[in-house]
Amino acid sequence: MGDEDDPIVEEIPVHLSKTLADNLYVLQYPVKSTTSTFDEGRVVNCCVKPINQQVKVDYALNTASNNYDAFKGEQFALAADGKQRDKSQKLTFRSGTMDKQSFLSAKPIEDVSRYLVCVMQDGEVHATPLKGIVAMRQMFSYFDKQDKRTKAEQKAEQDADGGAEDEELTQVTVKFARTENEKVRKAREKSFNYLSKMEAEEPWCETFWHDKNSSTAELERQKLFGGASGGVSGRMDTDSAALNVRPVEYMDMLISKEKTDRNIDSLLPSRVVCMHKLKQLPLLEQLKVILTDAKVITFRQILDLLPDRTLAPEKVLRLLPQIGWLIRGNWVVQSEFIYTEGSVSGTNGVIAEQMRKARDYILFRFTKCDKLERHQLATITQLPVEEIRDILCSIAKLNATDRTWSMLLPPNECFQSVDEQEISDRQSAFWTARSDKFSEMERNNSVSTTGTVSSGSKRIRKRSTRDSGSGSATAAGGGGVGTTGSSVATITSTSSYTRQLSNG
């Protein structure tokens, strides 16, 4: 889709402000009715617990309203504080009637690093990170006080009636606490009872509540704006300079690097590494993963795929020859990382050593020519055609016109630095040193067009089981090819090679 089909309608500048990032909370009222308006409510008391991020707010009730039941309000106050009020105890309702409703917070979201409070002004968006999000729910602690006071009164009456004398003796069991190790201690600190105890032990801190129309509230709202258009004249937000980065780095800043509870490795196919896990690997392991997945890749593409794009190309070039080979300007992973020791192929169960030799030979041939034939490679490597096809599919593509195979990427021998040319010369020397070994393989396993092997292969002739006068011969061994009149049979060590001869 071009730019003409999807035009840019408007560009909106975004400013990041962190002035209130350590103190900004969002208060939600999930159980509030549609008719309730807490914006106009009068707050008579407010306190917080900074460590556990708890907030408690008391909103005043209009006891003079026609909708307020004064009799019911006095009953609630009497039930909570009792008839005989203790002066040392803090009263729930000081006026003798239910004149307020209390709200206590709970944390619906633990991680709020992905949430922002945004304000738009003069065509610009100003964003501030949050410290926390809390859900405010109404408290009914006066009912708990009533139950507690009722139980205490009943116990006092039983003690006055002599109930303590009739109390039976109970057995006391002594338990000694075991010495806990580090693992048990961490598990205990994560338990619900421990967290509840820590929350209860933290004292409440009294705070001041400023009305939204007050001058103090207006000054705090000005801190939501960042940049030169903020509340302070001439103030430049230094955090805005962090946004002047490349698009790729900006995406890395947006994506959270923390681990999630869900294991992403279980969702990926086998031998596939996610980008987050790739960043945690050493550079050599990163290069091995990239070369294994990419099959055939250029050096410039390797630099683009590395998580750390500030690495010097010289450092990457020093490590690449340890895990890859340079084939006509393109990098290919070494065969030992594809076919590890002790493994077998998935098609015919060929051992890893034979698969590595065959793949090395195919890569050697690609250093000499542009196109290869699959049947010729199967004849020389002594591997089934299916295995040769699997190797070719990982590094080459099939040409439909002449049924030959060529590398996935065209030759790329335009080196731009001295280090690249030096590595290219070393790679050429490496393949030249192995050329004698591959030439011997070709001489031993090459087949002529007449179907007979060269002098290096064994030629076995067996007398026919029929009378010699019949002039026919039967080949001995599995899959041999018999010829009438000549009594010649070609025998190989594997049935797959005989299959190649039978197919021509």
Automatic annotation (TrEMBL):
Coiled coil: none annotated. GO terms for cellular component: RNA polymerase III complex. It comes from the Eukaryota. Residues 446-457, 484-496 have a biased composition (Low complexity). The lineage of its organism: Eukaryota, Metazoa, Ecdysozoa, Arthropoda, Hexapoda. Pfam families: RPC5. Residues 441-504 are annotated as: Disordered. One of its GO terms (biological process) is tRNA transcription by RNA polymerase III. This is DNA-directed RNA polymerase III subunit RPC5.
